[in-house]
Write a structure and sequence with these properties.
27% helix, four-stranded antiparallel beta sheet, elongated, 3 helices, eight-stranded antiparallel beta sheet, 261 residues, alpha+beta, Umud Fragment, subunit A
């Protein structure tokens, strides 16, 4: 009886060892499968990241871009802290690293608020209002803008009590002046012209007229420098606030989603 029990106990131990061995082999098999699948998983992750980056670069380069207002030259149309969505495909976008440009579905038009690469600061992007197209004759008399002889109604323009100003940069206007002897021409911030805008050149002004460094100073803008048309404000906050975390605590809710015109 004792021998039979001993044999039975020995058989059970053998079964346990067999089960343990099978479990270990199963674990090794699962680890092998996981290792085999891991390169495929890494490849899929890498592929997804590459596609996402490529899509972002494509959208950012050819379709849309964002722009943050950091100065008051376009007040009250745009305020410091406004974050804008800019439509690049509307007027065409540049192909990076080349002089080529993809045609847009529309032409720049007078009154557009445009983002551009200014000639006087290659590393800077600016935003101003387009007031002069190729072939236009522009003039300003006592802060009133005239286009082709007609005074413009500009409800978006802001003025202050600052006196008129002279700046040495404005001598560039003599090349396009048609009002007499260019040698005697002495333009000021509030009184200048008439000027004729040549082909593929544009004249940009800030809406905050006495506080804007624009085409009056640095000159005409070449067409290839245009980046896109500002469409709407997707976020806005009081960037000049002294409160902590102004981007969260000083949100201008009324400006979010507001179109730009």
């Amino acid at each position: 009886m004792a021998k039979k029990d001993k044999g039975r106990g020995k058989g059970a131990g053998s079964d346990d060892r067999s089960s343990t061995k099978e479990a270990a082999e199963a674990r090794r098999a699962r680890r092998s499968e996981a290792k085999a699948d891991n390169p495929n998983s890494m490849a899929e992750w890498t592929k997804s990241i590459v596609i996402a980056v490529a899509l972002f670069v494509f959208l950012r380069t050819f379709l849309v871009q964002t722009f943050v207002i950091t100065s008051g030259s376009m007040e009250e149309t745009l305020l410091v802290g406004d974050m804008l969505l800019v439509n690049r495909v509307a007027i065409g976008s540049k192909i990076p690293g080349t002089d080529l440009r993809i045609p847009g579905y529309s032409e720049p038009k007078r009154g557009d608020v445009l983002v551009f690469d200014p000639p006087h600061e290659p590393e800077l992007m600016l935003i101003k209002r387009l007031v002069g197209l190729p072939g236009d004759t522009l003039e300003m008399r006592d802060r009133v803008l005239f286009v082709n002889g007609e005074a413009q109604d500009e409800p978006y323009v802001v003025h202050d009590v600052a006196g008129d100003d002279v700046h040495p940069w404005m001598v560039w206007q003599r090349e396009h002046f048609i009002g007499g002897d260019p040698r005697a021409y002495a333009p000021t911030r509030d009184n200048w012209g008439p000027l004729v805008i040549p082909e593929d050149r544009y004249f940009m002004l800030g809406d905050n007229r006495e506080h804007s460094l624009d085409s009056r100073y640095w000159g005409l803008l070449e067409g290839w420098r245009l980046e896109g048309r500002a469409v709407f404000t997707y976020y806005s906050y009081n960037k000049d606030s002294y409160r902590p975390l102004p981007a969260l605590r000083e949100v201008r809710w009324g400006r979010i989603g507001r179109g730009i015109s």
